[in-house]
Design brief:
mainly alpha, 42% helix, TM_HPP, two-stranded antiparallel sheet, membrane
Length: 245
């Protein structure tokens, strides 16, 4: 519930000082047509916590017209509201659900077909972080994580960090911890926040079949696959905007 306090058409001289509290003009307004109603309320100091005396003297205010509007929400946010859906956003339409889901299906289908072609070389394009990339690009295309700068810089940088961590510390918990910490620090420093890229160091350290890529892992399969996903994102966004149902 909002509280509206409007003071208007003050045609008297009011002297405010630390010795005498101020006279306030308060007009409750329940509708815009009742804003001009006026009521004089004189505030007096009845307890130390009710009114704080002014630290300095304010001169006379003559024939001044002014208005003050204050609002406050009486209902404070409850701790459990973070576990419920956002009530401010409208329910998505069927097309808003269908097109991103269809885009994700096409993305994994195409990358899976490429996997079959690259299988003799022991290379896979359908790495787990690309599922998170699809979710970011197709469901929240306007978010910072979906920006092309964030995505490509984070994909390349975090993948290279994973290779360095494995080279320095070898397989194990120390390499995983150092790689993840360095990846997060890199994204913060370069302002390229892209959460899916944080898993790339862990994927390389624990993925034996990726070790032979060495520093080529910085470009493949993560960054190379993102080029295809960006093209697919444009198609999904176009379909969402022009074919609604």
């Amino acid at each position: 519930m909002a509280l509206q306090v409007v003071t208007s058409h003050l045609h008297r001289d009011v002297t405010l000082s630390s010795a005498s509290p101020s006279a306030l003009l308060v007009a409750p307004a329940t509708r815009p047509t009742q804003i001009r109603q006026r009521t004089i309320l004189r505030a007096t100091k009845t307890s130390p916590g009710f009114f704080n005396p002014l630290a300095f003297r304010i001169g006379q205010v003559k024939r001044r017209e002014f208005g003050v509007v204050a609002s406050s929400n009486a209902a404070a946010s409850q701790p459990w509201e973070a576990f419920t859906p956002d009530k401010a956003s409208a329910a998505p339409s069927l097309s808003d659900v269908f097109w991103p889901s269809a885009g994700a299906f096409v993305a994994m289908a195409v990358l899976g077909k490429v996997d079959q072609l690259l299988a003799p070389k022991g290379i896979s394009m359908t790495i787990a972080p690309l599922g998170a990339v699809c979710a970011v690009l197709f469901t929240t295309p306007a978010s910072p994580a979906a920006r092309k700068y964030n995505m490509f810089l984070a994909q390349i940088g975090c993948a290279a960090i994973g290779v360095v961590a494995y080279t320095v510390f070898g397989p194990g918990w120390l390499a995983r911890s150092a790689g993840l910490a360095a990846a997060i620090g890199f994204m913060i420093y370069t302002r390229s926040n892209h959460p899916p890229a944080a898993s790339l160091p862990l994927l390389f350290i624990d993925g034996v079949k990726l070790h032979h890529l060495n520093y080529w892992y910085a470009l493949f399969p993560g960054a190379a696959s993102c080029i295809f996903l960006c093209l697919l994102q444009e198609i999904v966004c176009y379909l969402k905007a022009n074919f609604k149902f």
